[in-house]
Amino acid sequence: MDNASEGITVAPNPFASLSTLHLTLASPAKVTLVVRDLLGREVLREDEGSLSAGSHAIMIDGSKLASQTYEYELRMGERQMTGNFTVVK
Question: Where are the beta strands (DSSP E) in the chain?
Fold first, then answer.
């Protein structure tokens, strides 16, 4: 599944402390955001619980993250999607 079908964007990107992952779900799903650094280590996990179909905003707190590009994995029930964002201090 590609990001366009679910409508995922991270803005602003790059960012220094806070950004928002904007998500549009086609159907209800339990949503978890996992963020990994360049070495694949998990640095952030946000369990958003069960979300309804439609638009949602998930805050990403980068204030304690080092300046670099991170990969996020968004788990939505059985579906998973990945993307990147950059933290710049």
Answer: 8-11, 18-25, 29-36, 42-51, 54-61, 68-76, 79-87
Q: Is 81 exposed, middle or buried (0-12, 13-18, 19+ CB in 10 A)?
A: middle
Structural tokens at position 86 = 């950059």
Domains annotated on the chain, with CATH: 3-87 (2.60.40.1930)
Beta bridge partners of 44: 35
> Which residues 6+ apart lie within 8 Å of 4 measured at CB?
none
Question: In angstroms, rounded to a whole number, what is the distance separating the alpha carbons of residues 63 and 68?
Answer: 12
pLDDT (tens place) for every residue of the chain, 89 residues total? 344 456 799 999 999 999 999 999 999 999 999 999 999 999 999 999 999 999 999 999 999 999 999 999 999 989 999 999 999 99
Encoded tokens for 18: 């806070």
